[in-house]
Specification:
The chain has a five-stranded parallel β-sheet with strand order 5-18-17-6-16. The chain has a five-stranded antiparallel β-sheet with strand order 14-13-12-9-15. It has a four-stranded parallel β-sheet with strand order 2-1-3-4, sandwiched between helices. Strand 13 (about 275-280) and strand 14 form a beta hairpin. About 45% of the residues lie in helices and about 20% in strands. It is elongated. The protein folds into two domains: about 1-120, Rossmann fold (3-Layer(aba) Sandwich); about 125-395, no CATH class. The protein has 15 helices and 18 strands. The protein starts with a helix and ends with a helix.
């Protein structure tokens, strides 16, 4: 990226870099863009006129898999209206947008064959680690888990959530101790939810306090996780690692000196009466106030938005690169996906470990069994269930998807109707043909019967007698009719006389 930015600058271009989250834009800032910020902030500054965009502007959107349709459409409209260049970078197999991801629509519009792709990775130092990361990306989690197990990096914990959290903290301590002589060593602990991140952070904090890595608790903050809305007491001491949920600047300098944003982890250097003195990942120190750790214009007694920072969610870690990584799943892989599995197991340059609760996986398997089956899942069943869940790459349904399905249903209905009509027509033609054949045979049989039946021959005397008999019958009928008429007329005359 740095090479591209330098080339654009040589052409006299102004380069803006952006991501969905402020924290993720730090990598673009390191690449040398003129300004790196969140997409929402960029669009707002365009609207207010604080940022001007024209044909001499290059817009770079990173982590494109997290960009939703709304942001994607806004960026495309902006580029078309101003003539600016829009370049988007990202891996569609990493964590997805909260809303419907825009990358799916882009692929449909542009065509997958027209999108430039980088098919190799250089983050992992060793070929074995690159191969394992590729297996997770390709949905081959069964092979990836097998490889991790062979390397001693797959940890199936014989217990539930608490045991898995404790094992994760223990593994963290083992790995940090083994690499404490390396000043450049960094270890990233990831999990599936902020609640689990808090639990793991507390467990690691206990180990750090036992080794005198943090001081005594100097203040207990009323804190809140804005994602879950959960409020909790957060003890803070010198040396603690805290995860921010708000964007903060050095209170002694002002907005010009940025220290951290949502998702960043900072180290507490000193506890002050009105806030904290912190050090960020770049080694920059500064003072932040309690008010900066709350929403804008929040009440004075509102809880601060911070939590333990020794563990983070996979979504928060997407833009990070560390020496080693631990992906912990205290409640099993029930809500895990291939997107998050690939993201978590590709943040490292050295080694990555997978820690999963055995009890949680067994419970999930038993719940799917038929009632009364009573089968105890084997270890192979558990590993297979983990691999299946980490190979899921479900796509979010969009309006265009529903429209495509409706069109497909309509076309299939028409096709089936025409096919059925053709069958009925053929059956009808066959039936009519059979009826005609049968009718002709029947008529032919009647004709033959009539032909074969001989009429009796009468003599002349018999014919004359028949005619006389017919004449007699006709005369009797006429006489009877005249008599009946005369009787009716007589009755009418008697009635008149009365």
């Amino acid at each position: 990226m740095a090479t591209l930015v330098a080339a654009w600058h040589e052409d006299g271009k102004t380069v803006y870099g952006m991501t969905v989250a402020w924290k993720s834009s730090a990598a673009l800032r390191d690449a040398g863009v003129d300004q790196a910020l969140a997409i929402d902030a960029f669009l707002k500054r365009i609207e207010t006129g604080k940022i001007k965009v024209d044909s001499n502007t290059v817009i770079v959107a990173d982590e494109v898999s997290q960009i939703g349709v709304r942001h994607q459409v806004a960026l495309l409209k902006l580029a078309r209206a101003t003539g600016a260049q829009l370049h988007e970078i990202g891996d569609p197999r990493q964590c997805q947008a909260v809303s419907a991801p825009g990358i799916d629509l882009m692929v449909k519009a542009i065509g997958d064959e027209n999108i430039a792709k980088i098919l190799t990775t250089v983050r992992q130092q060793h070929e074995r680690d690159r191969a394992v990361a590729g297996m997770f990306r390709d949905g081959q989690a069964a092979d990836a888990v097998k490889a991790l197990e062979e390397d001693g990096r797959f940890h199936l914990v014989a217990g539930g959530r608490e045991a898995t959290v404790a094992q994760t903290a223990k593994l963290w301590r083992t790995m940090t101790e083994a690499n404490k002589a390396d000043p450049d060593y960094s270890l990233l602990v990831m999990t599936d939810t902020n609640a689990h991140a808090l639990e793991i952070g507390k467990a690691i904090r206990v180990l750090r306090r036992a080794d005198a890595e943090i001081g005594r608790d100097e203040v207990t903050l009323r804190a809140m996780d804005p994602n879950s809305g959960e409020t909790f007491n957060l003890p803070v001491a010198r040396g603690d690692k805290l995860r921010l949920f708000t964007r903060v600047n050095d209170a002694d300098v002002g907005r010009s000196r940025y220290l951290g944003s949502n998702g960043d982890v900072v180290e507490v250097r000193q506890v002050l009466s009105d806030g904290l003195r912190i050090r960020n990942a770049d080694g920059e120190e500064g003072r932040i106030t309690w008010a900066q750790m709350k929403p804008w214009r929040a009440p004075k007694n509102d809880p601060v938005r911070v939590t333990m920072g020794m563990a983070v969610t996979v979504d928060s870690a997407q833009s990070m690169t560390k020496t080693a990584a631990i992906y912990s799943l205290p409640n099993g892989t029930g809500i895990a996906t291939g997107y998050k599995g690939h993201t978590a197991m590709s943040r490292h340059t050295g080694e990555a470990h997978l820690v999963v609760s055995d009890a949680a996986e067994r419970k999930a398997i038993v719940r799917r069994q038929m009632l009364g089956a009573g089968q105890t899942p084997s270890r192979e069943d558990v590993v297979r269930n983990i691999a299946t869940n980490l190979s899921r790459f479900a796509t979010k349904r969009q309006a265009t998807t529903l429209l495509e399905q409706a069109i497909s249903v309509q076309r299939n209905s028409i096709r089936n109707l025409l096919h059925g009509s053709a069958i009925v027509q053929r059956q009808g033609e066959t039936g009519i043909s059979r009826f005609r054949t049968r009718f002709r045979l029947t008529n032919k049989g009647i004709d033959m019967e009539q032909t074969n039946t001989k009429k009796p021959k009468l003599t002349q005397e018999q014919r004359d007698a028949a005619r006389q008999m017919s004449q007699v019958q006709q005369n009797e009928t006429m006489d009877s009719h005249h008599a009946h008429h005369a009787q009716q007329q007589a009755e009418q005359e008697r009635g008149l006389e009365r």
